[in-house]
Amino acid sequence: MAKRKDIAIVGYGETKVTLRGGRTSYELAAEVMDQILNQTGIDKKEIDGFAIAEAMSDINPFWSVYMCEVLGLSPSWTQVNGLGGASGNGAIARAAAAIRDGLCETVLIVASDAQSSGSHYPEQGAWRHEFLYPVGLRGPVGAFGLITERYRHQHGLKDEALAKLAVTQRNHAILNPNACDKLRKPITEKDYLESKYVSYPLRMLDSVMVCDGANGLLVTSTKNAKRLGVKKMIHPVGYGEVTNYKGADQLADITESGFVVSGPKALKQAEMTPKDIRMIQPYDDFLIAVMLTLEHIGFCERGKGSDFILNTDLSYKGTLPLNTSGGQISAGQPGLAGGGLNLIEGIRQMFGEAGERQVSDPRNCMVTGIGGIPYGRNWAVANVLIMEQS
Fold it and tell me: Does the predicted TM-score (pTM) go above 0.90?
């Protein structure tokens, strides 16, 4: 599909990321919606579509319905996105399709979770009880430890490259007032290298900290955006998504992700190559995921991620700014709203509203999403969104 600019992102909102903040997902979502309406000046009555990510803290079969009741919305189209950290990107693609099909005209997309304040989410099922829990793999930390060790065996892994990522993202978080206060403290590469192992060879500073928070954006057609008189807009011009990549392959390489499929697809739609990407906001529940993402999408050769990171300026002033909000690792992961944190930062940067950490010439941005950690496989969902200015 050729690049199109008929869909516009016209506003965004984000709460501060907090640790055990005590507010509900409903309260956090309401704050985000108010921010968006105030920023755009659009009347709430214009919103006739609603998409929301699932939450670890408060989920039910009528999640979107109850949230609409709290927010005072009466949409003609709703969508609950169960893609984990890929839900924000996926919501934009689905909202665009709904708008093009005439199901709605203006879509509010929200991700809100208060996981650190207490979860009512049922225990995850599938293969976990049978294969993971009996051997001590209690979720993503153990799985990413295995991925990291396998990558080290295959290609070698320079710990100083991961240390550079950790310090770069932390430096960005210090400049981000919405980042979790506990994480807005300087670290050095030595701090990273000396941080304790949590699932060898995964360190504490490789990992996210679960927090509370919410984020969201407003999507409509470019034509309608002009009618509404919005001041700023950017356009989703490339998108790729794959779920359960090589899931049926009994000998799948645990270090190969679906980004080898979704990355090239998004770039082709956007009529770009990796060299055309001005900045990237990759999903970062663990630092090794960032390295694998760069390799699989084509920013460098497979197995050469360490050298690419060490030889590239990834700061907000650099040639390829990366996770300029601090990412989830240094801003905090607000539960299943975590993927939206990096997405909103990309939009903020392209709107020219990132303050001290503003990227120069923010003409485009790539955002990636990850969801699910299968047994003996790489992550289950991998999607890539490319946005471009008008």
Answer: yes
Q: Are 198 and 324 in contact (CB under 8 A)?
A: no
Rg value, the chain, Cα: 19
Asked if the model's pLDDT at residue 194 lies above 60, the reply is yes
H or E element in which residue 96 lies: helix 87-100
What's the CA gap between 320 and 336, in Å, rounded? 26
Are 17 and 212 in contact by the 8 Å Cβ rule? The answer is yes
CB 238 within 8 A of CB 384: yes
Residue 153 burial (C-beta neighbours within 10 Å; 0-12, 13-18, 19+): exposed
- For residue 33, pLDDT over 60 is answered with yes
2 domain residue, yes or no: no
What is the tens place of the pLDDT at every residue in 297-314? 999 999 999 999 999 999
Considering its fold, how many domains does the chain have in total?
1
- In the chain, how long is the greatest CA-to-CA distance? 58
pLDDT number for residue 1 = 43
CA torsion sign for 184, 185, 189, 194 is negative
Q: What is the pLDDT of residues 234-249, one digit of tens each?
A: 999 999 999 999 989 9
Question: Using an 8 Å Cβ cutoff, are 324 and 354 in contact?
Answer: yes
Angle formed by the axes of helices 140-155 and 287-297, to 10°?
50
Specify the pLDDT at position 250: 87
**How far are the Cα atoms of 150, 201, 255, 383 from residue 9, in angstroms, in the given order?**
39, 40, 34, 18
> Order of strands across the sheet with 234-243?
77-81, 49-53, 106-114, 212-221, 7-14, 234-243, 381-389, 364-371, 280-281
Q: Is 377 exposed, middle or buried (0-12, 13-18, 19+ CB in 10 A)?
A: buried
Q: Which phi-psi region, left, alpha or beta, contains residue 345 (left: φ > 0; alpha: ψ -120 to 50)?
A: alpha
Residue 376 lies in a domain: yes
Distance in angstroms (rounded) separating the CA atoms of residues 6 and 108 = 17
CATH number of the CATH domain containing 378: 3.40.47.10
Contacts of 30 (CB under 8 A, 6+ apart): 70, 71
**Residue 196 resides in a domain:** no
Domain, as residue range, for 323: 7-121+208-389
333 three-state secondary structure: strand
Structure tokens given for 276: 């055309």
Residue 144 lies in a domain: no
